[in-house]
Amino acid sequence: MSQPGRGAVSQILEGLAAGDRTAVSEALNLVDDRRPEQREAALELLDALAQRPTPHTPYRVGITGAPGAGKSSLLNAVVERLRDSVTGIGIIAVDPSSQRSGGALLGDRMRLSGGARESGVFLRSMAARDRLGGLADATQASAAVLSSVFEWVFIETVGIGQSECEVAQLVDTLVFVAQPGAGDTLQFMKAGILELPDLFVVNKSDTGPVAERTRSELQATLGLLGSADEGEWQPPVLLTSARDRQGIDALLEAMAAHQKHARQSGQLEDRRQNGRVNFAVESLARRYGEYGLAQIGGAQAVAQRLAAPSERSAFALVLELGREIESALTRR
Amino acid sequence: MPKTPHLEHPDRPWLIRTYSGHSSAQASNALYRRNLASGQTGLSVAFDLPTQTGYDSDHALARGEVGKVGVPICHIDDMATLFDQIPLDQMNTSMTINATAAWLLALYVAAAERQGVRPDTLQGTTQNDIIKEYLSRGTYVFPPEASIRMTSDIVAYTVEEIPKWNPINICSYHLQEAGATPVQEIAFAMANAVAVLDAVRAREDVPEETLGRVFGRISFFLNAGIRFVEETCKCRAMTALWSELGRERYGIEDERMLRFRYGVQVNSLGLSEAQPENNIVRIALEALGVTLSRDARTRSLQLPAWNEALGLPRPWDQQLSLRTQQILAYETDLLEYPDLFEGSHVVEAHTEALLQDARTELQKVLEMGGAVSAVENAYMKQALVESHTLRIRAIERGEQIVVGVNRFKETTDSPLTAQSEGSILKVDDSAEREQVERLQSFRSARNSADAEAALQGIADCLKNGDNILPASIRAAHAGVTTGEWADTLRRLFGEYRAPTGVGAARSISAGEDTDGLRARVEALSETLGRRPKILVGKPGLDGHSNGAEQIAVKARDVGMEVVYDGIRLTPEEIVQSARDEGVHVIGLSILSGSHGVLVRDVLERLNKEGLQGIPVIVGGIIPDDDAAALRAAGVKRIYTPKDFDLSRIMGDIVDIVGEAAP
Predict the structure, then answer these.
(1) Do the domain assignments include residue B153?
(2) pLDDT at A309
(3) Whether residues A137 and A250 fall in one domain
(4) What's the pLDDT at B55?
């Protein structure tokens, strides 16, 4: 079994700096690799990327919603509008895995129209796999790789409750795509997911009154939940039609508004910090188990260590904490 | 002794046809005239894939496909050449054309006018069934709404202007090829017909009193499988259900309009590559299934060639299929009797059982909004993928017997396939080049201002919601090409990608072989550090995706991660996707015969990207010589129709990925 020693990592780093897509792909393969020796190399790579300034301000958007709501076609329409005005778009599309076999059918969702890939769109599909709780650590790492090369990174997931919470911590703006039709709002409330998204989109506005009704229902429900605090972000409910390319500009404007708000209010930094803690805890727990994590004081301690001012990236801290756990375990 | 009931006059035979066309209009014209001279009574035109999907022969996507699975028709001169010395007022021509049906019908009408033949004397059929293209055959271009609009344009136009024309041939044929059970075949075909009829009924230019005539012109195109007793019952069930629909849903009373009229191409799915001569018998029995019952007898019949699973049939192979029909029609006493099943409670009971289940399934589709909704929400596609998976599993396990394939496999050498040329037709590689040359000289010779104006006329008529046919016929005369016509529509309607139906297909694999494979995939995942990831790609214009879908579903079921983006991808898109997705292996599926060009293109691009380490496997109808050449070019494994054992293929993939792992 080959190990991508320092040489391989620095080669990938060079490739990423040059925007080489094969290097992007290799980096994604590496951060997805579960073998212990590869994991160290992956963390080193991620640390180096975190240290390195990017020529652009990375922006991450999560797109979630029930199957059939039209997430992929909406994303397609957004990408089409964006791709000439931004420096690169990366997409991570997460599909569920089969419980029985662990296998997964990916793709067939992001139907990028012709020529999309050449004009700077990079698409990696991932399976949610057997991770408990889902996808936080591999997706976080993959998003970090893509953000180092592409200005916009989208993470698309099938929304079934739990995954929203995880995606919410990975992205700067979370967009929930709702399917027009009676009864949906109730479902959203039941699932308890209305608190998380920053933007709501009722796609398929071409269905006319049905979409309009869903929008007002959503709006009313959100009004009930909403805090009246001055300066709090009030998630807007937008109508789009990916099919007719309607409402796409308004959606992009809403994203920009939220991005600005999140930056100024500190929400963005809070979220990213949460995301880092989550990544660290999940990644350590997967490698060393709860027992291993307890050796260094548990999730609480990890959060504190990450919160302390430091020159180092979360990825380097994960490496360091991992070594601490290992030595604590061998001391026993 | 009771007297045997005999018909006073024996019935006239059904229309005897052979689905054919290849290389060029000229070569196909020669073939048609030869076939007519041998006693064929109608023509059935096979168009090549660029023509079916609206590309001129010199378009980038047409590369390697020109003249392969049918004849290339780019403009009126091609169409006139195709029917040279064949008087169109005396011919009955069936055209297998769907997304571009309005255009090819326009060219046919224009070619007839050139012969001095009046359109209202023309007889024939445009297949014009877009829904089954989304479900199975894959030569769709435009979104469902726009496609159904054009379908109904053709219906509304022909019912007045070409009254003896069958404007649409609702195809359950391709549904069976995609794995449909008899019940699914009946129900989905009827749902499809309802979608078209409802669209026509909603038109302002079709008055209520015309609906009966419209109903009477709708014809069907059925499949006939080897379970020929059940197939007979299926035809009888469809006959009953069709008149029931006409009466109850459309209020039609006239018995003549309620008659179920259908043509048949017998099953290709069940033809084997192993011991291919056995197919001769299969074909004859399948033909019997759709001719045996007089009350539900086919109006026209096309038989495939015995060696279809090996490659393109030669003229001699097609002659054998023609003779098979002629023996059935002229030598046997089949046409001398009334319906043989009158009073048969066995046939009646089975027909009734099929009918009941089909009614329930039809109701289900109608309740979800009809056939168009059931395409968009992938309900029908998923149902077909699942039925097909069950069928393949039954063959793998030997529960469904295929003689020479999973039972009675021992064989002596066949003199039929022993010849050095491989007993199949080779399309001359110069066909594509010559066609492109003809097209380019046609373009430079025509009056381009006329062509421009005619194209503008089509754009205007689409915007105004006018019937597309009159403008298309004018464009045909003005020298517009197939690609120009389709591009104009693409700009206004957009292009469509249909759901593949594999994403949500239920897992059907189970059993020891699956468990063993899952364990091997788990072990391989440990070695790789992540799950093996496979890209299943369909390059080129070929839309026959059943094989690719089965591989995708099986690979998932044994634990692999599968990237499958559907049909009609360019080699460039496939290589980019392989790189972005970080796959361990690429599987390509090509059934149109263009494997040589397309596979090599993929391999070259992989090399250029530094991705030559990703192994490539290929599946399709690939003759031995071609397979050897592809292997020499770097393809790791090649699978042909005889490789029905998906578990074995999965085992190979695990080996190949394991060997390629660094």
Answers:
(1) no
(2) 75
(3) yes
(4) 96
Does A129 reach chain B within 8 Å, measured CB to CB?
yes
Helices A267-294 and A136-149 pack at an angle, to 10 degrees, of 140
Same domain? For A157 and A206 the reply is yes
- Report the relative pairing of strands B43-46 and A121-127 from DSSP bridges: unpaired
Q: Which of B508, B580, B605 to substitute to test the interface with A, most A CBs within 10 Å?
A: B580
Residue A191 pLDDT grade (very low, low, confident, very high; cuts 50, 70, 90): low
In whole angstroms, what is the distance from residue B595 CA to residue B638 CA?
A: 11
Q: Where are the alpha helices (DSSP H) in chain A?
A: 6-17, 21-31, 36-51, 71-82, 136-149, 162-168, 184-191, 209-225, 248-265, 267-294, 298-307, 314-331
B374 vs A286, more confident: B374
CATH number at residue B432: 3.20.20.240
pLDDT band for A2, please (50, 70, 90 cuts). Answer: very low
Same domain, A32 and A128: no
Q: Are residues B489 and B532 in the same domain?
A: no
Whether A28 and chain B come into contact, CB under 8 Å, resolves to: yes
Length of chain A: 332
Interface test with A, best of B491, B525, B561, B564 (most A CBs within 10 A): B561
Q: Give me the amino acid identity at B551.
A: I
Rounded CA separation B575/B661 (Å): 19
Domain that holds residue B561: 512-660
pLDDT lower than 70: segments of chain B: 1, 419-422, 500-512
CATH of the domain at A234: 3.40.50.300
Domains in chain A: how many in total? 3
Do the Cβ atoms of A124 and B377 come within 8 Å?
no
Q: Are residues B262 and B353 in the same domain?
A: yes
Q: Do A241 and A141 share a structural domain?
A: yes
Do B590 and B618 form a contact (C-beta atoms < 8 A)? Answer: yes
What is the reported pLDDT for A116? 46
B350 in active site: no
Please tell me the predicted confidence (pLDDT) of residue A133.
Answer: 42
**Same domain flag for A89 and A73:** yes
Three-state DSSP class for residue A124? strand
Predicted confidence (pLDDT) per residue in B386-438, tens digit: 999 899 889 988 999 999 999 999 988 888 877 655 677 777 779 999 999 99
Q: Which stretches of chain B sit within 8 Å of chain A by CB? A: 377, 495, 497, 499-500, 502-504, 507, 514, 518, 521-522, 527, 529-531, 552-553, 555-566, 573, 576-577, 579-582, 609-611, 662
Nearest CB neighbour to A21, from listed B504, B563, B579: B579
**Same domain for B168 and B253?**
yes
Query: What is the domain extent for residue A328?
Result: 266-332
The answer to whether residue B9 is catalytic is no
Q: Which of A118-132, A248-262, B217-231 has the lowest mean pLDDT?
A: A118-132
For residue B54, give Cα distances in angstroms to B138, B140, B211, B229, B490: 13, 10, 31, 40, 9
Distance between CA B552 and CA B562 in Å, rounded? 6
- Residue B522: closest C-alpha in chain A: A102
Domain final position from B477, B499, B521: B499
Residue A57 has pLDDT above 80, yes or no: yes
DSSP, residue by residue, B266-320: E-STT--SSSTTHHHHHHHHHHHHTTS-GGG--SEEE---TTTTTSBPPHHHHHH
The answer to whether residues B522 and B495 belong to one domain is no
For residue range B515-540, list pLDDT tens digits in order. Answer: 899 999 999 999 999 999 999 999 88
Burial class (CB within 10 angstroms; exposed 0-12, middle 13-18, buried 19+) of B280: middle
B181 shares its domain with B292? yes
Residue A108 pLDDT: 60
Q: Are A76 and A184 found together in one domain?
A: yes
**Domain limit, last residue, from B443, B477, B499:** B499
* Phi, psi at A122, each rounded to 5°: -115, 125
